[in-house]
Amino acid sequence: MTKQEKADDIHRILEELYPTVPVPLDHVDPYTLLVAVLLSAQCTDVRVNKVTPALWALADEPRLMMEQPVEDIRAIIRPCGLSPTKSAAIKELSRILVEDYGGEVPQDWAALESLPGVGHKTASVVMSQAFGVPAFPVDTHIHRLAYRWGLTTGKNVVKTEKDLKRLFPEESWNKLHLQIIFFGREYCPARGHRMKTCPICGPYGRRSLLNKEQ
After folding, report:
1. Which of 10, 117, 137, 201 is 20 to 30 A from 181, comparing alpha carbons?
2. Which CATH number covers residue 116?
3. Are 38 and 126 in the same domain?
4. Domain HhH-GPD spans what residues (predicted)?
């Protein structure tokens, strides 16, 4: 079985299991999605979704957020971890959005990635989920699964993103990265993985030289 054949089968399995997928982070517009994704760094989506209602009650748009004391933002988002860095980034990116972009989140890769606290993965999520631009956000979880499934030999998320973009059609990227996240949580966790019953690793885990057991 070639790597492309494996990718095609994995795509088919994910489509069967997750024909529709919601965005895991609660949000109402590009700005709240941007902030939620920033908060999700080294934090679970579940915890972020518990924290953001209080944050939106404080300020749910850039102009209001830039006016808040950073200490007040930090107090709310503390459960997400890295609160000193994240709170400063949220306040500063809000100021930049107001002063440079009319209070709107820019639909532009370079502009997004230049914002405080916003890296390529965060920009990819916003571009794909807020604006519908084809992107393949790769975090450590997707990187782990792609390596486990033999879809990449990359040692970092940059190489993994390139490999996945080559294997899957562009029109599938925005949905597929969410399908992989949901599949990983339900069937293919880092710990306690039951290979024999995993819909993907069961058929391929022991037969493909491209796949390494984790």
Report:
1. 117
2. 1.10.340.30
3. yes
4. 39-186
Among 86, 102, 2, residue whose Cα is nearest residue 37: 86
Angle between helices 140-148 and 157-167 (to 10 degrees): 60
Residue with tokens 């819909």: 199
Question: Which amino acids are annotated catalytic?
Answer: 121, 139
Last residue in a domain, options 100, 130, 160: 130
User: Which tokens in the block code for residue 204?
Assistant: 């391929």
Structure-token pair, residue 111: 């502009």
Domain match, 152 and 167 both: yes
Cβ proximity of 146 and 209 under 8 Å = no
Percent residues over pLDDT 70 in the chain: 94
Residue located via tokens 């405080």: 116
Same domain, 105 and 42: yes
Domain shared by 39 and 110, yes or no:
yes
Please give the angle made by the CA atoms of 37, 39 and 42, to the nearest 5 degrees. Answer: 100
- Tell me the residue range of the domain where 190 lies: 3-21+137-204
How many structural domains compose the chain? 2
Average pLDDT over residues 112-118: 97
pLDDT digits (tens, 9 = 90+) for 167-198: 999 999 999 999 999 999 999 998 888 888 89
Q: Are 160 and 146 in contact (CB under 8 A)?
A: yes
Q: What is the CATH number of the domain that holds 9?
A: 1.10.1670.10
